[in-house]
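Thread: "does anyone have the structure for this chain?"

Original post by V.I.:
We have the sequence but no experimental structure in hand. Need at least a predicted one for the grant figures.
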Amino acid sequence: MTKLLTILLLALVVEAVGVVFLSKGLKQIGEVKSVTASEIARAVRRGAANPHILLGVALEAAFFAALLYLLSQKDVSLIWPLTSLGFVLTALSARFYLHEQVSGVRWAGVVLIVVGAALVSYSEQLKPQEPPPAQQTPAQ
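Reply from O.Q.:
Generated one for you, tokens below.
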């Protein structure tokens, strides 16, 4: 379980950093002023050439690959709620890297997320353990 939690924590750091890069890149390319083909094409061209967006997409892809591995190893009812801890890292990244103001109410929400993730993690310890698969002996 320690290995999976380590992979999860690293994946969540990668995801939080990826989201920050995406946000920074999207602010650099500017908002779409109108929903027209030419305006959308402009935003896509600028986004496809923006290093922050490209790095953000790559980091999000790495997170997704780690998530696929984690979901193949453990129950989705354990792994998916634990990914909510990414909100904690994202809020911290937004506050200290993007210099966003994070209100007390948002920090209270972050605390609730941590409490919920702790309960989900604790529930894994309460789950009845399955016996290991029986070793088959070679036929003689």
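V.I.: this helps a lot. Residues 2-29 form the longest helix (28 residues).
O.Q.: and The radius of gyration is 20 Å.
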